[in-house]
Fold:
Amino acid sequence: MIFGEPADRADGCVGDAGMQLTADGKGWILESGEGACALFVNDDGQVLQTYWGARLPGLTDYPASPPVRPYAFGPPLQRVPVALLTGEQGTFGERTVDVVAESGLRGLVLRFVRAEPSDHRLALVLEDKAQQLEVVIAFEELKTPGLLGRSVTLRNLGTATATLERVFTASFHLPPGGPYALSHLDGRWGDEFRMRRDPLPFGALVRESQRVTTSHGGVPYFAIDRDSLGEAAGEAHGAVWFGTLQWSGNWKLIAERSADDRCVVHLGLNDHDFRWSLAPGETFEAPRVIFGYVDGGHGAVSRMLHDFVRNELAPRRDYLPPVVYNSWYATLFDVDEVGQTALADRAAAMGVELFVMDDGWFAGRRTDRAGLGDWWPDPQKFPNGLKPLVDTVHGRGMQFGLWIEPEMVNPDSDLHRAHPDWILHFAERPRTLMRNQSILNLARPDVQDYLIGIFDRLLAETPIDFVKWDMNRNASEPGWPGYERDQREVWVRYVAGLYRVWGELRRRHPRVIWENCSGGGGRVDMGMMALTEQSWASDNTVPAARLQIQEGYSQLFPASTMAAWVTDEEKDSYSLDFRFHVSMAGALGVGGNLLAWTEAERARAAEHIATYKQVRPLVAGGDLYRLRSPRESAISALAYVAKDKSAAVVFVYRLRPDRLAEAPTIRLPGLDPEAVYELEGEGISRSGCGWAALGLTVPLKDDQSALLRLQRR
Ligand code: GLA
Structure:
């Protein structure tokens, strides 16, 4: 990477990626992969993001920095693209950051103070003299080509407390030349990660969560493409501007389009019910946004983000998910040593590598009405503790995993009886129970310490290899009686507390693998990807639904993290093979009642598990190609291609009656065009170029699926 010296680059040729100083020394060009972002300081000292898009051949191609000229009746967005919008000089659009001084002075007028470049990072320091507030916008060049990080830090340089009313991390100005469309992940419980594409309307399109988690209703993610004829991006082609927030709580995305067709996308912490008191000398760091540009459609975006998660973010690099058995659907709350051992015996015989006991094991837990909070083994169900069961599972050659829900408490629990004040609540109002449970206020340091203590002990006393951390309700009554500052800080402090507890437990128990769950995919985001090895994508395990959920999940997150179990849901409608093939495209697990499975079913399952172990490195570490979308037709397909292009695995599914469809032909991009690949079991060999052009024809009937493997010769 080059930084610091004015770049010596001839126009007309694309140089090395990195950050480059412009020839006049007043700007920075951040180049990575196919994309570039240009930042300039204008004569007024404002920092402008004058460009974001495809890398351009010469440095002088990037537009420089016009001064702001206030208009009497200006349009609702800046005529010039200020990198951090504060509403100064009569601009009327959404702001990136909003601060009120103790004196009542509102808004910010930020001026450039200095740049602090370091390896792979550029920090631009700005200051508002009147508010005595420093704002640092930092850009990082991430290791994954094409990806940049942006973060924002506020520091109070004054002597009075400032109130932060909004702190978004980023406002991105799209190049002129719309219209644009926004693709985003929408959803609800049991139907997460639905990719939708909405043309940007004039005005603003808002996506958000106000629930304390990122929510089933969406992921803080945007992918923008052009909405004009012939320019819209698809799966495998087209320019896409994208970004995602590394945060596991309330978030907000606003995509604005002005009457003069300028577009700005804002992303960050939700300002809904948000306030933060910034005392003299204090800093506030907003979560990072990962962003990029690529000309290769949504497939290219996903491959970049998957690489980023696997190589830069995940706590365990090169993670190969173990084949899981989870007891939830088989036993619900009715767990004990004998029943779990019977399941474990069958799971082990099928080749399962990790046996997880789900909900129901802890004190007083018979239904969902009691027990949450009392995290020690139920003395009736496990009179000798968990150790005997853990030893049995280990003795069968499997790892042992356990379900917990640390953030929750049932009113019928010792914890609740001892600390009713530890719950999110308003003293003056009743507390709304959902699933018969309340949320602990993880913003409180004493709650955090309690959770660290109790789970540290559990993990120290019992050789647990894997923990599924669940979170089964959204927030209501987000009060924090007695908190000496503004109670609205709770939304952010809760997530910071969650990160502290989870991070500390990880640090103390580095061996343990963590699964993230929130009633399925209620909290799957880049924040969680940094903390956990895998996530349970949805409580909906019906194969047809699951194909869509998994496709949506795969927009951002790699298959290595996507827990996917074969269950008994609608087992009469889908063959065991079909159900396995759906789950084998992610982190394979089994969640059916093995005691009710026939011997033949278990034998077939064992074959699939053995096959999965062979293709697992491809699924977990390969490049994903979504070949046909389950949203668009009854036949869907995806492939994982090895990074070194030595092999590929292809999954093809054919759903419900669709008599018009012939045996589908699936074209296979992503292979080495020159190399020759053999389709295993069929004896057909073609070059990568040939497979891309001719594809493979898969003779599937309704509700059949196939797993095909190609090997380079
Ligand atoms: C949630 C999870 C399930 C299961 C139950 C247990 O619904 O998503 O997988 O763990 O809780 O109560």
About this structure: The longest helix spans residues 599-621. Confidence is low (pLDDT under 50) at residues 1-15.
